Amino acid sequence: MQTILLGAMQAGFLRTVALLLALLLGVLLPQAYVLKWTIQWIVATMLFVTFLGTKLTRGALRPSHVALLAANVTMGFAAWGLGLLVGGHEVGLAAFFAGIAPTAAAAPVVMSFLGGRVDFVAGAFLLTNLTVAALLPAILPTVLGTATPDLFKQVVGSVALVVFLPIGAAGLLRTLHPGATAWPARLRNVSFGAWALAMFLAMANASHYLHTETVPHVALAQIAAVTAVICAVNFALGRVVGGREFAREGSQALGQKNTAFCIWLALTYATPLIALGPTCYVLWHNLWNSWQLHQAGKKETAQGR
C-alpha cells in the first residue's frame, strides 16, 4: 500500500506539472486558438470513455448525493453573486462557470489514490454531470442576460451533442460489447492527455484574446482570487455535506470540477476572458489534489514505521 500511495503522490505531482505546462504552452502559443473548435469533441470523447466504465443505478445513490447536487447548483449561483460583487458582470460570469461545473471524471480516480469510497464519488460524477447538463439550457440564457428561445435551443443542442450523445453511445457499446467496461482503466493516461490538450487550447484561446483585446489586469486578478475562494469553499462544504461517513468523498465530489466542459461552454456562449474562470479553477483544485496525495503518502509512510 505504501508503494501505491507514493506512486500516486508522484503521479499527482507529475499530472499537476503537466497541466501547468499545458497552460504555459497555451500562453506562449496563442496561434493554437484556431483549433478551439476541437474542445467540444475532446470533452465528448473523454465523457464517452468515462461512461463506458460507470453507469447510474438506484443502489449507487444515497441521500447525500442529492445534497451534493443541490450544493453544486447553489454554488454556481453563489459564485455568480460573489463575482458580481467583487468585479461586476464579467467576473460574475467567470465565477459562475467555475462554480456550476459538475464533478470531474478524474475525481473517482483521485479518491482511489486517497483510499476512499470510489463508488460514492462515481455516483456523484454521474448524477451531477447528467443533472447540470440538463439544467444549463434553462439557466445559461438567464445568467448571460440573453434569455431567448433561440439561445435555449442552441444550448440544448450543444449539451446534447457533448454530454448526452456520448452517454448514449457508451451505454449502447457496453450492451453490445461488455468487455468495453475495462477500457477506461487502460485509457486513463490517454484521457488525461486529452484533458491537458483541452486546457492547452483553452489557454491558447484566452492568450490570443488577451493579445488582441485590452483587458484590465485587475479583472484577471479578481477572477483568479474569486475562483480560489470558490475552490476552497467547495472542498470544505463537500466535507460537511458528505457527513461523517463520506466526508472525504463529498469534499472531492464537490471540489474537483469538470472544468473542461464549462471552459467549452464559456468559449461557446461568452468570451475567452470569462473562460478564465474555470481555467483558473483547474490550477486550484489540482494543487489541492497534489497536496492531498502528498499528505496521504506521508501518513502511510509514518504508519509503516
Instruction: State the distance separating the first and last CA atoms.
Output: 13 Å
Number of strands: 0
Major sheet characteristics: none
Q: Which structural class fits the helix and strand makeup?
A: mainly alpha
Mean pLDDT: 84
List low-pLDDT spans: none
Strand fraction = under 5%
Per CATH, what is the topology?
A: Na+/H+ antiporter like fold
Order of helices and strands: HHHHHHHHHHHHH
Annotated CATH architecture: Up-down Bundle
Number of domains: 1
Shape: globular
Rg calc:
19 Å
Please report the number of helical segments.
13
CATH class: Mainly Alpha
Q: Helix content range of the residues, please?
A: over 70%
Describe the 3D structure.
The chain has a single domain, classed as Up-down Bundle (Na+/H+ antiporter like fold). The chain has helices at 2-28, 39-52, 63-87, 89-99, 107-114, 118-144, 149-176, 183-186, 188-212, 217-242, 247-255, 259-269, 272-304. With 305 residues, it is mainly α. Helix 1 (2-28) runs antiparallel to helix 13, helix 5 (107-114) packs antiparallel against helix 11 and helix 6 packs antiparallel against helix 7.
